[in-house]
What does this fold into?
Amino acid sequence: MRQSSLITTALLAMVSFATVACSDATEEKTAAATPAAATTAPVAAPALPTDIPEGMGVLPTSVPVPADNPQTAEKVELGKKLYFEPALSKSGNFSCNSCHNLGTGGVDNQQFSIGHKWQRGGRNAPTVLNAAFWSAQFWDGRAPLLEDQAKGPPLNPVEMSSMSEATVVARLNEAGYAPLFESVFGKVSLNYDNMAKAIAAFERTLITPDAPFDLYLQGKGDISEAAKRGMQKSAEVGCTSCHSGPLFTNNSFQKFAYGTDAGVKSVTGKDEDDHLFRVQSWRNVALTAPYFHDGAVKTLDEAVRIMARTQLDTELSDADSADIVEFLKTLTGKQPEVTFPVLPRPEGHALTWSD
Amino acid sequence: MRQSSLITTALLAMVSFATVACSDATEEKTAAATPAAATTAPVAAPALPTDIPEGMGVLPTSVPVPADNPQTAEKVELGKKLYFEPALSKSGNFSCNSCHNLGTGGVDNQQFSIGHKWQRGGRNAPTVLNAAFWSAQFWDGRAPLLEDQAKGPPLNPVEMSSMSEATVVARLNEAGYAPLFESVFGKVSLNYDNMAKAIAAFERTLITPDAPFDLYLQGKGDISEAAKRGMQKSAEVGCTSCHSGPLFTNNSFQKFAYGTDAGVKSVTGKDEDDHLFRVQSWRNVALTAPYFHDGAVKTLDEAVRIMARTQLDTELSDADSADIVEFLKTLTGKQPEVTFPVLPRPEGHALTWSD
It folds into this structure.
């Protein structure tokens, strides 16, 4: 396993983390996500399954939280407003939720997201769901924390395209955010760093527990025989050497000999980082098509086969691939239940947008 | 007062209406909107104000409902999903909420909304809030009912730009909406008409009660002295001959000798309809800048002065205009509290979008 210096940084950053229960300090609840997430209440409590492959487990109920950005209910609420805030974008057209839509698995299901003036990004938008668990953000891990990631899109010229941190802060100020920031962060605290902290705090509530697989593990529900076969098969062929543990990712960076994107090397410039990408979680993967960093793979079945071929030198049979897909579908958790925020706005005049 | 044949149609349509209490058949609640909507609880119950200009009143608590589209909780919930559904758009980028954002007064605060491939519409997006009360929809009233209005944007080439009703229905079917429609409308009921009915049912829940003015009228709160002067002044100069009643619109069409847009004439082709527009409500007007059908007027103060000048031949003093604006700000009601919907999606593959 090769890891870049970026990962070391990310792991070091974890040292100062506390963890909080996901339900702490937030009103956000979870709601039944899709028909796939619904389970039938068992007639009698079934025996706990005994044949679970090593390492697989129930999604944790607490997330790591940086020591300098503790969760509070008020901060989460502010972060939610900012997450849905089109004023982060130059045009007033895009919020975080535009590409990381909480109604559709935390993604937009586009190959490449639509950004400012209909430009397209260069990588597939990853889901925000459970992102609090990752060791680093972005496909190439260039942002150690959610706080770092949140600062990117508002200024990215093909995404929200705001001119500068100062521009964003000025617009939030005009919208009427200053008192909300001061209530959370203290006096004269409306700034870009705190904006990112609030968004990150909200994102730490976007956890998807109680997937059918989790309920199955706890004796609270069942999954299909095909899914059970897929669970065994995924371990047998070696998928779970990287897609391991309750998160179904070991949070490492791995060489993915696919496509032309240089991955981590595009950040570090080092040959040793060529085609390294952060291992993606399987959690909610049935909702996040199309697949891979280039979004070029349209179906989960095809994605599974390509991964087996390139990473494990294995040609999956139709039956095995179908079983693994059935298993992956059991990892769709309950989606966050979010009350749509009412955003602060000046009275009697509009904010200024431009192309 | 001149009214077009369109209005007659709209009023006839009202005959078959029932009304329902706004809180019926829906989980949607209302939440404090903006600082302006907050009121201080009185120490003792104040006397009811006695000097309210004729016709002004508390926002009704029930909305007209067409006999062929009764409200049900399940239909409202389906309509909410569709309201937030980017699959109505060809690109997968726009939902109803993109331009009629429930976080920002039911509008996008753009002069002209951004649509497919960054095209701009030709008229300012009106608010969806309280639209259930209007006699007709669109600035030119070309849609008698919310059901008619909802069918427009998905197919409008500069808005959502879907190719046909069949295309939209096929995409909703692929997303997994068929069972939801069948539960609400019966077997084989996923069609464009029912889509519009469900959206309209949801929109009928988007009512904004308890504006400071409403609380003042009921002896539950107070408004500023400036607002009280503005209230009297607006009646005195004649604004409320059209912006009348609890809705602050008499739901008529009036000649607005402003700009180059022909208004109702652009629909009927009749000279008598030239520059006729539906009288806009003052409810939540402080949130819906920029103003007028061309969105060219940036401030409420300027909008008030232009209206007084063109419609009433009155030049308002700075003080009177400021007072009227203060009054208008008291008409911002509690904004609907909406739980963000989780949308149906196929598992393991994405819907197909295109430019």
